[in-house]
Write a structure and sequence with these properties.
The structure is a homodimer. By secondary structure, the first copy, chain A, is α/β, with parallel strands linked by helices. The first copy, chain A, folds into 2 domains: about 5-230, 3-Layer(aba) Sandwich (Aldehyde Dehydrogenase, Chain A, domain 1); about 245-390, Aldehyde Dehydrogenase, Chain A, domain 2 (3-Layer(aba) Sandwich). In chain A, about 45% of the residues lie in helices and about 20% in strands. In chain A, the strands form 4 sheets. Chain A has a 7-stranded parallel β-sheet, with helices on both faces. Chain A is globular and about 65 Å long. Chains A and B meet through helix 10, helix 14, strand 13 and strand 16 of A and helix 10, helix 14, strand 13 and strand 16 of B. Strand 16 of chain A pairs parallel with strand 13 (about 380-385) of chain B, so a sheet runs across the interface.
């Protein structure tokens, strides 16, 4: 780059930094208002946004068609185009999603704990909004509505940064959310979208926009999550991958082991809670291994087995070391025979991703040990790993699953998007 | 620096990076063991550490004397030397502190919430350790024992990095903690101290030691906290300052206003919960302002007043803009007359530090509004800001107060040093 070129670009860089900082300040100011907004106002905004989304479905679809045309011309894969494409049904699902978030209980103001002190002070721990949330996502334009709604419900301001490929779609959806805010008398800056495709905006968000963003939530593929986790200078709610295990313990009921394993792997193979590795106790390799693997094969699953598995079942591809930590997200499973629960737990600790792991057993003591010792966000006994989902947990909709150990772990729903403060009520107490 | 000098230094940098990374890995491994340790084992370690501390009091004191000699020779201030100096009483207090932490309830394994799903799944949210905690502190050697004990009780491994001035003292105290761990059969790597005075160690800890540290807690002066908050690439539990307010509302009982204000400011002026600014409603400036200010003056406090305050009370130094955001930590208070609760709340939002703020009023609606709208970790009604303390909250001892909005806000006690996971118990459920 020549000096002249650099000089021409420099102001642009400064401009976007200034623009993003202004977005951050506006979000912080809106967060203050939003933190005090009534449940009713927030719900009215969501319901009005849903109505506006339905009213503007054609406009959203035509903006989306322009996005799709552009990437199709650039040779995008069918899977990419599918993620990007909106249909009338998908727009309706988005509007319905906004109404579902309106129907969720408002977490703000909930008393989480309360106790009295000997000096008569009454202490309450009460939920507050988190503040300002930055959402960085990729091609799915519906994240605009889903994430924006969840953040709003918890009283947070949100800064949305969608994929540049879905820029027109996300912008059109964002306009509906802003219309909802305005109709409810809430500040439009409560839900902002980064108004440029410039990738520098992401880097700026990851530095926290001069302290105005409290947490970043990335939504998308592994390369996005990894970049955000590596570069963010502020807390991130995310999981990089879900290398989930089903462990068939020696005391497992065979029919249950088959049903849970097939469901955990094959119900949907592309979700983070899908099982990627099956561990089977050596003592039941003779009775359980073959029928469970055959059930997987019958369901269309390919097997990568260790030596013991290949000894027990014909036509199994040998597993290599990389298989034990592979998140296939496809109808493939790695299968390993282990010498009991200690080896199973050690294997999960070594190769897993601390996301979701399950044991199948009729032995309560073994189940208790597994649930205590496996260090994952979600541990299950006699249930499918595919239950790793905020909706299935009864949290309403979720913004994702977090495997970090701070603040939010497991499904991140509206409650996990809150903070808290202490309210102390006295009658003139002073400290001795 | 010449190239030769650089070449000679480079390996040292590489050495400390490798050494710190090894400390991180050892901490992570110890955290795994510690997460499964029984309450009894952790308590035995703490009680044995207390006994060892008492047995080795003379050795600790002589190491401390060497530290004190060194800094005294370098012209340290009396306040600095006081913070660094241990006495027989201070060593005994440290040993007693270890026993107090042993007596606290163990948070690990506590079921925080539990609910049943319509499909029969039982979901429990259960406390787990956080993992590995990095403590960066300054001259007070007792932090070694206090922080080490709290982290251990919550099942965490800890990496301690004390001030280079208290290196010998902290190392001697650390040996007692390790003796306690060993006697209880727990891994000695559960509590490690950085074995070098090299300041590069701090920078390395702030990058998370290759993902082995989960959270950093700084203990010390503002410059340390600021450096940690600015440079850390991982979550930090801390507060930079406590610019705490007492707001005397128009419906305040005068005697209560006097007592709370004097206590909030003067009980101990050097703690973060000490009041730094007094706000008084204009409608009671005639009745309340003068007696409250005179009570402060009588208690030895200097006043920096706005115009209205100076009109009401003689001999008050004029406040300048910087006074409103000043954390004096001394017997000085800024006093401002406000036009009602909205201005009081706006002032606190603008100049405060989101730490601890109090309203004095007999008007319940005003109190409720203040407690709802003031965005601080702790908000009090009719009680002194000096109650901002984990012990006063009934949490047992605390490691500090956090003003961040994620995970820990307010006093950070043993419970705030935990994470959680979801335990799900089923009877063969698969996801439809």
């Amino acid at each position: 780059m020549s000096v002249t070129e650099f000089a021409r670009q420099a102001p642009a860089g400064a401009d976007i930094a200034a623009e993003m900082a202004a977005i951050g300040r506006a979000a912080r100011a809106a967060a203050h208002t939003l933190g005090l907004a009534s449940t009713d106002a927030k719900n009215r905004a969501l319901i009005a946004a849903a109505a506006t989304t339905r009213d503007n479905a054609n406009g959203i679809l035509s903006e989306n068609a322009a996005d799709v045309d552009e990437v199709a011309g650039q040779g995008a894969t069918p899977a990419f185009i599918d993620r990007l494409t909106l249909t009338a049904e998908r727009v309706e699902a988005m509007a319905h999603g906004l109404e579902e978030v309106a129907a969720l209980p408002d977490p703000v103001g909930t008393v989480i704990a309360a106790w009295d002190r000997p000096n008569g002070l009454r202490i309450e721990r009460v939920r507050t909004p988190l503040g300002v949330i930055g959402i960085i996502y990729e091609s799915r334009p519906n994240v605009t509505a889903d994430a924006g709604a969840l953040c709003l419900k918890a009283g947070n301001a949100v800064i949305l940064r969608g994929g540049s490929d879905s820029f027109r779609s996300s912008t059109a959806i964002h306009r509906c959310l802003v219309e909802g805010l305005t109709e409810a008398g809430l500040p439009p800056e409560a839900i902002q979208i980064v108004p440029t495709r410039d990738r520098a905006a992401v880097g700026l968000m990851l530095t926290g926009l001069e302290g105005t963003i409290d947490v970043i939530i990335p939504r998308g593929g592994k390369s996005l999550i990894k970049r955000v986790q590596d570069e963010a200078r502020l807390p991130v709610f995310a999981h990089l991958e879900g290398v989930c295990h089903v462990y068939v313990h020696e005391a497992a009921d065979l029919a249950m082991a088959k049903e849970i394993t097939v469901n955990a792997k094959m119900r949907r193979t592309s979700i983070c809670g899908a099982a990627e590795t099956l561990l089977v106790d050596r003592s039941v390799a003779g009775t359980h291994l073959k029928p469970v693997v055959e059930a997987l094969v019958a369901a269309g699953c390919a097997i990568r087995g260790d030596e013991a598995t290949r000894a027990a079942v014909a036509n199994v591809t040998p597993a290599i070391e990389a298989d034990w930590s592979c998140e296939y997200l496809e109808p493939i499973i790695a299968v390993k025979v282990v010498d009991g629960i200690a080896e199973a737990i050690a294997h999960i600790e070594r190769y897993g991703s601390h996301h979701t792991d399950a044991i199948v057993t009729a032995d309560q003591a073994a189940a208790d040990r597994f649930l205590a010792e496996v260090d994952s966000a979600i541990v299950l006994h006699n249930a499918s790993t595919q239950f790793a989902d905020g909706g299935e947990f009864g949290m309403g909709t979720e913004i994702g699953i977090a495997t970090g150990r701070l603040h939010a772990r497991g499904p991140v729903g509206v409650e996990q998007l809150t903070s808290f403060k202490y309210r102390v009520r006295g009658s003139g107490q002073v400290r001795p």
